[in-house]
Automatic annotation (TrEMBL):
This is Tripartite tricarboxylate transporter TctB family protein. It comes from the Bacteria. The keyword Membrane applies. InterPro entries: DUF1468 (IPR009936). The chain crosses the membrane at residues 41-63, 75-94, 100-121, 130-149. Residues 10-154 form the DUF1468 domain.
């Protein structure tokens, strides 16, 4: 069987692999039942649905033909690097790296760092727009996660709070 749309086929395979990985990882936790869900219930459900969706998309890539065949172009390395780096920087800023002495910088600094690094993935970088976006995201995240959900994680750098 010939692949008729490469983009759909590869995207479907990626969804399937990620979904199976999440569903498999969820089996390490208590699954529970529909009435008494355990911590593994939701990841198992979402992983299974993602894997099924991936199989459907991959199947469509095999049977639905497009004009150009859905060819996959070159990998955009710059955006890929900066988006992944932004997430890594956010994680490090939020929790720190105690093993090498990097203190936790908290939610607000982490969101600004994430926004700045991720904005470097684009073709244009405008400080004013990036800082406005960072401010909106920081306020929204504080309101949603700290104020509304009352989640307990550092908001400000640890050396300021102590």
């Amino acid at each position: 069987m010939r692949v008729k749309n490469q983009r759909d086929f590869v995207a479907g395979l990626m969804f399937t692999v990620v979904g199976v990985a999440f569903a498999w990882g969820a089996t390490n936790y208590n699954i529970g039942e529909g009435a008494r869900m355990g911590p593994g219930y939701f990841p198992l459900l979402v992983g299974t649905l993602l894997a099924i969706l991936g199989l459907i998309v991959a199947f469509e890539g095999l049977v639905v033909e497009t004009e150009d065949g859905g060819k996959i172009g070159a990998i955009a390395w710059k955006p890929l690097f900066f988006i992944i780096a932004g997430n890594v920087v956010f994680g490090i800023a939020l929790g720190g790296l105690p093993a090498i002495g990097v203190p936790a910088m908290g939610l607000i600094v982490g969101i600004y760092a994430l926004t700045i690094v991720a904005a470097m993935a684009g073709d244009e970088f405008k400080w004013k727009e990036v800082l406005i976006l960072g401010t909106i995201l920081a306020i929204g995240s504080y309101f949603a996660f700290v104020y509304m959900l009352n989640l307990q994680f550092p908001v400000w750098p640890s050396f300021i709070v102590r």
